[in-house]
Write a structure and sequence with these properties.
Number of strands: 0
Oligomer: single chain
Distance between the termini: 80 Å
Structural class: mainly alpha
Shape: elongated
Strand content: under 5%
Helix content: 40-55%
């Protein structure tokens, strides 16, 4: 990542390679979540494809604004 960077090399020596550790942990969590969610995905039906609304299939045009009533 940081080529020829004495500051970064010293930090890695003191604290460990935090970005690499973070990447490994994120990958482990992703694999675990994928494993845990797999049974739920098999039980749920796939989402229905969205269809655009069109006249004659439940589509209702907007009503005109109400006019004041004479009393």
């Amino acid at each position: 990542m940081f080529q020829d960077s004495p500051i970064y090399d010293r930090l890695v020596a003191e604290r460990g390679d935090v970005p690499a550790l973070t990447r490994r942990e994120a990958e482990r969590v992703r694999r675990e979540l994928e494993y845990v969610m797999r049974p739920l995905q098999s039980l749920m039906p796939p989402p229905a494809p969205e269809r655009p609304a069109s006249p004659g299939q439940g589509w209702v045009p907007a009503l005109p604004p109400a006019s004041p009533r004479p009393y």
